[in-house]
Design a protein that fits this description.
Length: 1004
């Protein structure tokens, strides 16, 4: 269809407000500055200067300038800047950072309201002016961009429309900081190279305090994020100098901030014991599939054009027939050439499609580099680059997510090309979040392998960090600044520096006096002490990084069979849960529901949910009170607080009943808060147990299964189904708990003897006859209380912590399904064990110091009534005495000098006095004494080392003097021999020694 047919159709317009909307994609302000640095790197610049100029009349008080020596732009290329979304850099094989044609506009408008661009290329000078202030003052809605240009030599305007040039320059003089043409030319003169670009951003955005977001006054050699504290913030989040130092994985462009060079880093060269792991995966297909679709679309269009041209050629040949005139032959040749060219283009696009389809099936390969940051161990995590540009930093993965010391201080580096992962427009994240999560998961697996290969854990993590000067217990504390620790760190990581002339990276040999040495910004290869690398024409040495291999645990056939059976069991559980679910379609269905079913979750269920959320970071030994409360069956409380319950006569007590039924109920003056809170009112108490007991079939009460929803790779729809199932299960378990408590309360109430009303003895006997049946039902339901217990299970002679997630009960035994917190890969994530067996035990209670605040508050309120642990033997008096004796021995063994309690008094303390013993002050004083003793040893060792070093230096001086005397003596001997015998020729010390030895031999 001809283009003229579209001339009357509506067109999308870019409004002025879009300039601000587009800039809001940059949440991280340094990311906006990095957009302008990226443009300089893509323009093949070797140097970029980022500096500020004071302008008090402007908002913010200064202008921010970016000056580079790249290839620049001519007037035609400058017009692409004002076209949003157009980029000449976009191609699948491109290694350039810019892809969207949006960075200059979004980045500069995030920093300030206005910017003006000066660029030089060939013999042209071009100025581009984009100002929100101009649009606001003039009341314009559409975006207008003045774009004048001049001849480089004559400085005359390059325009065929003088009126347009006059309007453009007038607007620039009015709304920019440069008020005449002379000031404009002064900006062009700052571009000293044959080509380059200068971007000036002004009218900077301010904070609520009316101060600019970028602080240039605190540090005159840096640009800081205003209002950001020094402590607790990564340096790259606060300092643009630190961020620019790691912005590129292989820096080749010199960056100067406020006139001082940024010491850029190649992260792989700054790590201790780096190791590279090759990772291959067929998972990353999103970008490749997009490229295949695009190539297929282009191939189809090219095929249509080629067919159309060939049909025109055939029709023209048939129409001309035998006409061989000159004009006819020219027309035919032109049509034939066009058809041939279109066919070639079509064939080329088809080949490209085939190549991309083949590449889609091929696995993608990445290199993961890991190493230890011994310079500052708290700065650890993954650095993810895209086409050499930093996208994400300090990303925790694998063992680092657990928060322990394992893999602490390890830094990972990976460079991901566009064909694998595509970044977002602000270059601070990746567009495909699912594939990015898969990348981090894979890096976590390789990180765990690196930790094993480094042997740090085997040698001792604390000992490893002590070697490099990390003497404080605080992980974030900096290392010691003592010279011996600085030398130790400097010896392990050689200094890598970039030549200011040839931009090659050189590794300097270690020198004792070079530790903490400040190298000049204009360092060149000639200053390299290594003679093989002291000139710019020498090739750059590649870093020799050893390769590692991910060793996966091979599953045996039995393990695979168990895993498959477990998955089948889980899916069967899901199916059973879905079949139990009934849909409420009308008010009649609501009336059929049990009366005690609540539509809203109770406070206890919500607290249970919150406690399960906190279980991820639970310490190894959980609080004792919370553990025992979760194991207790519900205690029955008196429904009528005015009456005093009396114990039943001994002959009527059934020995098979629970201990809570055999003992008298607690008096009304000391009720249990949680039990009484759930007790129904007295008016309905006589009817509720009778109606509530048959609502749950016995078959459903015997088997209680809690579904495990820990699979990471399932789709979002399945996760939503799991959430729905868990909510249904929590709603089912809640009334069941109430029923068991009501039944227990009814059983206890049946055994109460009311002296004031003897006429009701018949009903009382009737209730006491029913109570054994209710007790049997309670015993059947009681295993449900075991869910959520924190236990330890023995696997391969080692104990692992876990949580009871499901219970299976029958008449003979009770089985627990335990989900482990952490186990090796060779062990299943969960396991069935028999309650009370030797393979399972409740987790040991922690010391009072390690209790959480919630547990301490519960302890202050007083312990709740509880039953003894059925999985452990009871504690006898002999065991208590032995523990008291052991505690006395331990206290006497570690007793610090000058403690507030005499050492002899400990041996005479009772068990109660030992419980109240001030252990915290005891160990604090012991630790301080031990620390002072270690410090004295360290001081003595340092003094001896210093003395040895001084003695060694003096010996070296004496040795040097002796060498000089010997050399002088040799010179005198040679001169003496030459006077005696003129034809003697001795050039080296060895020849002299041989000649003297020969003379002595002849003399003998």
């Amino acid at each position: 269809m001809a283009y003229s047919n579209y001339s009357n159709l509506s067109r999308a317009q870019l409004t002025f407000e879009y300039l601000h909307t587009n800039s809001t994609t940059h949440e991280f302000l340094f990311g906006a500055l990095a957009e302008l640095v990226d443009n300089s790197r893509d323009a093949s610049a070797t140097r970029i200067d980022i500096y500020t100029e004071k302008r008090p009349e402007l908002r913010g008080g200064y202008m921010l300038c970016f000056l580079d020596d790249g290839i620049g732009m001519d007037p035609n290329e400058s017009t692409h800047v004002i076209q949003f979304g157009k980029s000449n850099k976009r191609s699948p094989e491109s290694t350039q950072i810019g892809q969207y044609g949006n960075g200059l506009k979004s980045g500069s408008m995030r920093i300030g309201k206005d910017f003006i661009l000066f660029t030089k290329k060939d013999n042209t000078l071009t100025c581009l002016f984009m100002s929100r202030t101009f649009h606001e003052e003039e009341g314009l809605d559409e975006v207008i961009v003045p774009l004048p240009s001049w001849d480089l030599r004559t400085r005359e305007p390059l325009t065929s429309d003088p009126e347009k040039y006059a309007i453009e320059t007038e607007l620039i003089f009015k709304y920019s900081p440069f008020k005449n043409e002379r000031q404009l030319m002064e900006q062009f003169n700052k571009i000293e190279s044959s080509s380059g670009t200068l971007v000036v951003v002004y009218n900077l955005k301010l904070m609520d305090t009316r101060e600019p977001e970028l602080d240039v006054d605190t540090d005159h050699q840096d640009i800081l994020m205003a209002g950001t504290p020094v402590e607790g913030v990564k340096p790259e989040k606060r300092s643009f100098r630190a961020y620019a130092a790691v912005l590129y994985i292989d820096p080749r462009m010199r960056i100067f901030i406020q006139g001082h060079k940024v010491r850029t880093k190649r992260l792989s060269c700054c790590l201790y014991k780096p190791r590279v792991y090759k990772y291959t995966s067929t998972r990353f297909k999103t970008r490749a599939e997009q490229e295949v679709k695009k190539a297929d679309h282009l191939a189809k269009i090219a095929e249509e054009k080629a067919r159309e041209a060939e049909s025109k050629q055939i029709a023209l040949e048939a129409r001309l027939g035998d006409d061989l005139s000159k004009d006819s032959r020219a027309i035919l040749r032109k049509v034939q050439d066009s058809a041939m060219m279109l066919r070639r283009d079509c064939d080329m696009k088809k080949r490209i499609l085939e190549v991309k389809q083949k590449a889609l099936k091929e696995p993608k390969e990445l290199n993961f580099i890991f190493g230890v940051n011994i310079g500052q161990r708290d700065l650890d995590g993954m650095f993810v680059y895209n086409c050499s540009r930093l996208i994400k930093m300090y990303e925790k993965t694998g063992p680092q997510l657990e928060g322990g010391m394992a893999c602490g201080g390890v830094v990972g580096v990976v460079d991901v090309p566009y064909l694998i992962l595509e970044p977002t427009h602000n270059k601070q994240d990746f567009a495909d979040a699912k594939e990015y999560r898969h990348l981090l998961k894979s890096m976590g697996e390789h990180l765990a392998q690196y930790w094993k290969d480094s042997n740090i854990a085997q040698k001792g993590i604390v000992k490893f960090w002590d070697e490099f000067g990390y003497l404080s217990a605080s992980w974030s504390a900096p290392p010691s600044s003592e010279s011996r620790y600085k030398r130790r760190r400097g010896m392990e990581i050689p200094l890598t520096i970039q030549c200011d002339k040839c931009l090659k990276w050189r590794t300097l040999p270690f020198q004792m006096d070079a530790v903490d040495k400040r190298y000049p910004d204009s360092w060149v290869c000639l200053m390299n002490p290594d003679s093989s690398q002291d000139r710019c024409d020498a090739s750059e040495q590649k870093q020799n990084v050893p390769c590692g291999v991910l060793k996966k645990d091979k599953q045996t056939a039995d393990d695979k069979q168990k895993e498959l059976a477990e998955k089948i069991k889980q899916q069967q559980g899901k199916l059973d849960a879905l079949q139990k679910t009934s849909t409420v379609k009308s008010a009649a269905d609501v009336k059929k529901l049990p009366l005690d079913v609540s539509m809203k979750p109770t406070e206890s269920s919500s607290q249970a949910t919150r406690s399960s959320d906190r279980s991820i970071t639970r310490p190894r030994s959980p609080p004792l009170l919370a553990l025992l409360k979760s194991t207790l069956p519900p205690r029955a409380t008196s429904q009528r607080p005015t009456r005093t319950p009396v114990a039943p006569p001994p002959p009527k007590v059934d020995p098979s009943r629970s201990r809570s039924a055999a003992k008298p109920c607690p008096p009304a003056a000391k009720p249990v808060p949680k039990a009484t809170a759930k007790t129904p009112p007295p008016g309905r108490s006589s009817r509720t147990p009778a109606k509530a007991s048959p609502t749950k079939p016995a078959g459903q009460r015997k088997r209680i299964l809690d579904l495990d929803d820990s699979e990471e790779e399932e789709e979002e729809e399945e996760e939503e189904e799991k959430d729905a199932e868990e909510e249904e299960e929590s709603d089912e378990e809640e009334p069941q708990t109430k029923k068991s408590k009501m039944a227990a309360a009814a059983g206890n109430r049946g055994k109460v003897i009311d002296k004031a009303s003897p006429a009701k003895r018949g009903k009382l006997d009737e209730a006491s006859e029913k109570s054994p049946q209710e007790d049997t039902e309670n015993d059947t339901k009681s295993p449900q209380k075991d869910k959520g217990l924190l236990v330890e299970v023995r696997v391969n002679k080692e104990w692992y912590t876990g949580k009871v997630i499901a219970v299976e009960a029958n008449k003979q035994s009770v089985r627990w399904k335990v989900k482990f917190d952490y186990v090796p890969r060779s062990t299943p994530k969960d396991r069935w064990v028999f309650k009370g067996s030797d393979e399972v035990r409740l987790m040991r209670p922690p010391s009072p110091i390690s209790q959480t605040p919630d547990t301490q508050q519960e302890a202050e309120k007083g312990p709740a009534p509880m039953e003894p642990d059925t999985t452990q033997p009871g504690t006898s008096r002999e065991v208590t005495d032995s523990l008291v004796t052991m505690l006395r021995t331990m206290l006497g063994y570690f007793f610090p000098p000058a403690f507030q309690i005499p050492k002899d008094d400990v041996n005479s303390m009772t068990a109660e006095e030992l419980v109240a013993f001030p252990l915290r002050e005891y160990f604090q004083q012991y630790e301080s004494g031990l620390q002072s003793l270690c410090n004295s040893y360290q001081s003595r060792a340092d003094a001896r080392a210093k003395a040895v070093e001084e003695k060694s230096n003096s010996n070296e001086v004496k040795l040097k003097e002796a060498d000089e005397k010997l050399q002088k003596l040799r010179t005198n001997i040679v001169a003496l021999l030459q006077k005696v015998q003129e034809d003697i020729d001795i050039n080296t010390d060895d020849e002299l020694d041989a000649y003297i030895e020969d003379l002595l031999t002849k003399g003998d």
